[in-house]
Specification:
Layout: E1 2-12, H1 15-26, E2 35-42, H2 47-57, E3 60-66, E4 70-72, H3 77-87, E5 91-95, E6 97-99, E7 114-120, E8 127-130, E9 138-141, E10 143-144, E11 148-151, H4 168-178, E12 182-186, E13 193-195, H5 204-216, H6 218-221
Parallel strand pairs: 1-2, 1-3, 5-12, 7-13
Antiparallel strand pairs: 3-11, 4-13, 5-11, 6-7, 6-10, 7-8, 9-12
């Protein structure tokens, strides 16, 4: 594992969008001793299988799993995430927004204790989503959103369970916790990322994945119902 390399791993089906996302990364401030690698994964039918392919392709210790419609606007992004990882070797993954307690329905953003911030266009227009403020350098989370997930350890994505594009992020957050690692959201003076996803229409696969999440992680999400 190369601890002087950071890989930006993206599942791509829109080349123009990906090139714009890549442009933002190329203009980040990069420490002199750090190598930046781009891993573009195409022709995969699930984000979990695409991300596992990304892990196989890169020996970078630090991996940024990001959607092709995410634009990193914090020029110091690389230094900031490396600083957080270096503060505590038990921090396994970083995200921009998340929750401290996963609701019993598995939908992280419906929690009462969400925190972090991001610019997002899921309602059809761009807006700044401000959850509760992170008061310290970072806040520990039970789950983070999948728009961007930054790791310093390789843990397999559960493609055996999630074959689509939903709830893989909550799953991966719990997988890191199962391995004893912390998942955190950093303090952001201003937003670090823009997520230009556009209005999202949910199909039957969303509910199917939600049920799989609740089945696999019942003990973590709703321990009172586990006998």
């Amino acid at each position: 594992m190369n601890d002087k390399k950071i890989a930006f791993i993206t599942s791509v089906n829109d080349e123009e969008l990906y090139e714009e996302s890549k442009f933002y990364v190329e203009h980040l401030i990069t420490p002199e001793d750090i190598e930046v690698e781009f891993v573009k994964v195409k022709d995969f039918n699930s984000i979990t299988s695409a991300y596992n392919e990304g892990i196989r392709r890169s020996d970078a210790k630090y991996k940024v799993f990001m959607h092709q419609d995410v634009f990193i606007v914090n020029k110091n992004f690389i230094q900031d995430i490396l600083h957080i990882f270096n503060l505590n070797k038990n921090i396994g993954m970083i995200g921009m927004v998340g929750c401290k307690t996963i609701p019993t329905n598995g939908v992280w953003w419906e929690a009462s204790d969400c925190f972090g911030k991001v610019a997002d266009s899921h309602i059809g227009s761009m807006e700044i989503i401000n959850f509760n403020e992170v008061k310290d350098i970072y806040e520990e989370a039970a789950a983070i959103d999948g728009l961007i997930m930054i790791t310093q350890y390789d843990i397999p994505w559960r493609e055996d369970i999630f074959q689509g594009w939903h709830f893989y992020d909550v799953s991966h957050s719990i997988e890191f916790k199962r391995k004893g690692y912390k998942v955190v959201v950093p303090k952001q003076q201003s937003i670090w990322c823009i997520h230009d996803c556009g209005r999202i229409e949910l199909d039957f696969s969303y509910e199917d994945s939600r049920k799989k999440l609740l089945d696999e992680y019942a003990e973590e999400i709703n321990p009172l119902k586990v006998t």
